[in-house]
Amino acid sequence: MEQSNQLVLMGGREMNLKKLMTNPLPDPLAQVKEMAKKYCYSGEKYKIYNEHAEIDRENYYMVVYWKEPIKESLTGLLIVREDGELLPFEECFEVYKLLTGVDTHLKTILIHIGPYWIQKPQFVWHRLKRLLEKVYPAVERSKNTELERAYQGFLEIPSVMLSTHEEMKEVVERGKKLFSELTTDYLITRDFYDRVDHEHTLLMNLVAKQLRVQIETDQVRREFLNLFQRQIPLWDIINQLRYLRLFQYHRKLKVDKRTYEGYQDIRQDVKRYEANRPLREKQIQSIRNPRS
User: What is the C-alpha separation between 170 and 172, in angstroms, rounded?
Assistant: First the structure.
């Protein structure tokens, strides 16, 4: 049974990708549809990727098969050349990589990760940075090098959060342009894949950087608060109050176990290549092209 023609990338909730499309969805080639039907088993539905991959001047399409009620329950894949011929199984991996890689990476940038991180409110970091700037004269007057070092460590949090947030917004904007470019002819080349992969890697590194600064500055923030509190005279009510506000910020910056474990996972596998290996291998093995 044939599934209605709908762009794989159109599953987003946070961003209306339809507005970014340059051209409407193309109709699948008749010879590709015919081969897709031929390899569709009883009880299955299928969808032909709207995007196609160009390798050595030839175009290739991928068919996804699944059984209801769970569309994500993939039962098979098929790689079909534009003339309706099938590649040998051993030659399918590059097509699979280009099509699934671009699809997954653009979803990460435009649907899953990108919008979530750029929509986080930034006023808290602006306020923290201003508060730290207000206490700096007292830090400077102390001539305490340890306090100065700890202060710079605390200041790293709002500085990194604000700068990486701007970089993330730029990645998402470039992702939108890449999506619009993709929907011009729905063609994925190695060069296009590399450009999408670059933006995806950059985004994940920025996420890791934000998590790192929140987790790895915990000790230096404690040191600053302890040293700063001892430096404030009892009569300096303003800096006493500023200390209490900084202490409150510090407590709110504590990360839970789940966030810490997530950071460790990203730090060790920023592109999530190893994390996705089992699913990738399962999908590759489900390719129905003839094997030698």
Answer: 5
Distance CA 175, CA 179 (A): 6
**DSSP codes of every residue in 112-127:** ISHHHHHTS--HHHHH
Distance CA 52, CA 75 (A): 20
Beta strand 74-81 with 187-188 is unpaired
**Contact (CB, 8 A) for 40 and 46:** yes
> CA-CA distance, 69 to 82, in Å (whole number)?
30
CA pair distance 27, 63, nearest whole angstrom: 14
* pLDDT mean across residues, the chain: 90
What's the confidence (pLDDT) of residue 15?
59
Kindly tell me the sign of the dihedral angle through the C-alpha atoms of 46, 52, 54, 59: positive
Contact 124, 213 (CB under 8 A): no
Phi, psi of 46 (to 5 degrees): -145, 160
Q: Which two tokens stand for residue 10?
A: 């159109």
Non-local (6+) Cβ contacts of 94 within 8 A are 53, 55
Confidence class for position 4, pLDDT limits 50, 70, 90: very low
Which tens digits make up the pLDDT trace of 31-52?
A: 999 999 999 999 899 999 999 9
Total residues belonging to the chain:
292
Task: Please report which confidence band the pLDDT of residue 70 belongs to, taking 50, 70 and 90 as the band edges.
Answer: low
- The pLDDT of residue 2 is above 90: no
Q: Among residues 176, 170, 165, which one has the least CA distance to residue 12?
A: 176
What mean pLDDT comes out for the span 154-178? 97
DSSP calls for 243-288? HHHHHHHHHHT---HHHHHHHHHHHH-TT-TTTTHHHHHHHHHTB-
